[in-house]
Amino acid sequence: MRRVYFDHSATTPVHPLVAEEVYRFMTEHNYGNPSSLHYFGQIARKALDESREKVAKAIGAKSEEIIFTSGGTESDNMAIHGAALTNIKRGNHVITSAVEHHAALNAVKALAKQGFSVTVLPVDQYGMVNVDDVEKAITDKTILISIMHANNEVGTIMPIAEIGKVVKDRGIIFHVDAVQSLGKIPVNVDDLGIDLLTVSGHKIYGPKGIGALYVRKGTRWRPTLFHGGAQERLRRAGTENVPGIVGLGKAAELAMENMEAENKRLLTLRDKLIGEVTKRFSHVRLTGHPTIRLPNHASFVFEYIEGESVLLSLDMKGIAASTGSACASGSLEPSHVLLSMGIPHEIAHGSIRLTLGAGNTEEDVDYFLEAMGPIVERFRSMSPLSEE
Amino acid sequence: MRRVYFDHSATTPVHPLVAEEVYRFMTEHNYGNPSSLHYFGQIARKALDESREKVAKAIGAKSEEIIFTSGGTESDNMAIHGAALTNIKRGNHVITSAVEHHAALNAVKALAKQGFSVTVLPVDQYGMVNVDDVEKAITDKTILISIMHANNEVGTIMPIAEIGKVVKDRGIIFHVDAVQSLGKIPVNVDDLGIDLLTVSGHKIYGPKGIGALYVRKGTRWRPTLFHGGAQERLRRAGTENVPGIVGLGKAAELAMENMEAENKRLLTLRDKLIGEVTKRFSHVRLTGHPTIRLPNHASFVFEYIEGESVLLSLDMKGIAASTGSACASGSLEPSHVLLSMGIPHEIAHGSIRLTLGAGNTEEDVDYFLEAMGPIVERFRSMSPLSEE
Amino acid sequence: MYSEKVMDHFSNPRNVGEIPDACGVGEVGNPVCGDIMKISIKVEDNIITDIKFKTFGCGAAIATSSMVTEMAKGKTIEEALKITKQAVADMLDGLPPQKMHCSNLAADALHKAIEDYKNSQDK
Ligand SMILES: Cc1ncc(COP(=O)(O)O)c(C=O)c1O
Ligand SMILES: Cc1ncc(COP(=O)(O)O)c(C=O)c1O
Ligand code: FES
Ligand code: FES
């Protein structure tokens, strides 16, 4: 069967060159523990250093500002709890947005239980945070602001540089979750005024289970999650995941090399997808910002149909997509992102997300459009809500 | 140059079959996110389930009692903080031993800062925890006991089954760090009376950056480290490291298949190593228990010489070993394990650890013995301490 | 995630639609995830001779709607009232635990349709 993978925001295939590097660091003489003084250890140590350099370069940072972690979730938690607990004497107010990934949002909510005061900023109909809202929310107790760079569910790109300017020189730590933006739009920690930045390997054609946290030199931040060995210069205990780190480095390097050309290509496909879907189907709308969105991201709500059943039907045609429908979520709650944008519960039900990537072609888009027609028709005819 | 890897307690080469599995789950159609409902996601989900089954089987547990983590350090932290914070209303006393790995020891020490009362049990000259000491330390406030199964630095195997019996039916949670014991001696959570058990992939010929925590059904334990998505049935947030998990499952399976034969083989090598070292050299002694020790573990202290320089010299001969010398540690403190055993600071300086594994042969042992002679001689003749 | 039977009923749902001159109609909304199911029945001599459904919901909701209509068709009112959510799930070779509430929905819609029919008879 033809297989079309349209779920690159969930995870990406590992780039063949990355997979080879990972494999290489599990075998030959490359399996050493970087803390070991001997030959095997030193090969691993060198690989760590090189990889750290590559990740740093991808975000315009210095190599010693990169800490390797087990993924985006760990980085978000490390960033947020570390910053909050380290600065508790300076203030107890934390600002975030309603559309953050659960890794960040739940980390902030956990702070609220520990006595921190938390402002969760609303977003507009496009899922966009308003810069003025950020500025107004700041008090003299504010110690941390955590806002994502691009939203995973609706693709909207936040005004991070503008927020960075607002935060600058106020002694507030600015954390940005760049899990979805890295490799798709430029991410430069200096240009954007970022103090802490979250990176995840498996969203940029790198391995799963590896991520990074950027900590700007001089930031009042201490690790609070793991206790243990002296790895990562005392900032992250645990034997380093060398193959994963090497893979992340390679993935970051490749992402930078390919970004411009690849995103031009994906933008064309995305625009065809958005154009055709909104043209061919009635009662459908784009979610997220129409233009200030990730170049590979198309997301919709279809009225009168339910996302999970659409997903299953697409899957039978070999197409992999995702949804924010309540029925597809473990918690049976619709996506908090769609609800925050003012989309009603029953319409959030019909959400479909198509996120493009390296392997996708125009034929894939056409194949999807053809497959989607009968599916929408079938479910609408089956729906007690539809007037059709 | 001939390369002899004698540092299997630090990390192990990845078994070729494991490396292949890891590679396979980064490529082909196997890269999906296990939370995704589509074909790609379901392949990954199935792989998770199978791997969980394999890890469970290796320790005599049920599959749903296994949580995948990023390694031994995370598992230790998760176990200890989760157990302590979940039971804070029932008591505030935690017991551990002086020779635990820093991942456990520092996690417990962090609890002490949060107001928990902590007993760090001493060990005897062999690095062994005394069962009576455990029993005596228990108060009606004791909620958690964390003791390692086998010590990484000196190879001593702790009386876990006996401690398990003491702990049983007292409503105390028993955590055991089995990072060094799994695959080398039988680890059965029921036979040993264990509630929480730490496993790390890279010590059993599996990948780095992956581990597991066993949580006995019914144990009063909640995750407290990571906030985020609903992965691992709400017990560990973050996109699952599928290739790592598959690798860990395969490694656990292979370890069980090979354990008996392999350890018989290694025991012979180890005993030759210990016998010859203590026979050929003066002023040297075995560290750890002479018989109740890991079958692959030989560790010594050589008087009048310093471990780091011996390591460098061995490395020049292609031999990879390790040391608990202050000079080789990041903190310039000698190994807390050796000190706890009553070995004086200056003698701990001469510690050399040789841990055998899959690739090692009798020729390796002979090669080491030959190489070591001139090295010991050279450093002793250079030492102002030596009487020789 | 779903059994083959679920996927079969999801792909080829039986008895989709509405009966224009139905004897009873049951519509239920799912309080858990917000889905809606509507079942209409035709009853002759106390026997359900025709039954149709419309569902706005997940794969399990569609499959359980389809299954419940198959199970109820040809049964007496009393027999049909004995169809439980567990029976529907069992006939589908089981449902994932987090989807059991969907089969609840199907059984409820059927029972409501029957109630509606009974109410109209009482008048
Ligand atoms: C925006 C965002 N942040 C954080 C994460 C969590 O990253 P990971 O799955 O690597 O833990 C994800 C993806 O799941 C994400 O999309
Ligand atoms: C006994 C013991 N516990 C825990 C750890 C930590 O495991 P990891 O390095 O996988 O974090 C190690 C090894 O470093 C160990 O030997
Ligand atoms: S109808 Fe929502 S989960 Fe089944
Ligand atoms: S003598 Fe150099 S570190 Fe000890």
TrEMBL record, chain C:
One of its GO terms (molecular function) is iron-sulfur cluster binding. It holds the Pfam family NifU_N. Residues 1-121 form the NIF system FeS cluster assembly NifU N-terminal domain. InterPro entries: NIF_FeS_clus_asmbl_NifU-like, NIF_FeS_clus_asmbl_NifU_N. GO terms for biological process: iron-sulfur cluster assembly. Signal peptide: none annotated. It comes from the Bacteria. This is Fe-S cluster assembly scaffold protein NifU. It comes from Pelotomaculum isophthalicicum JI.
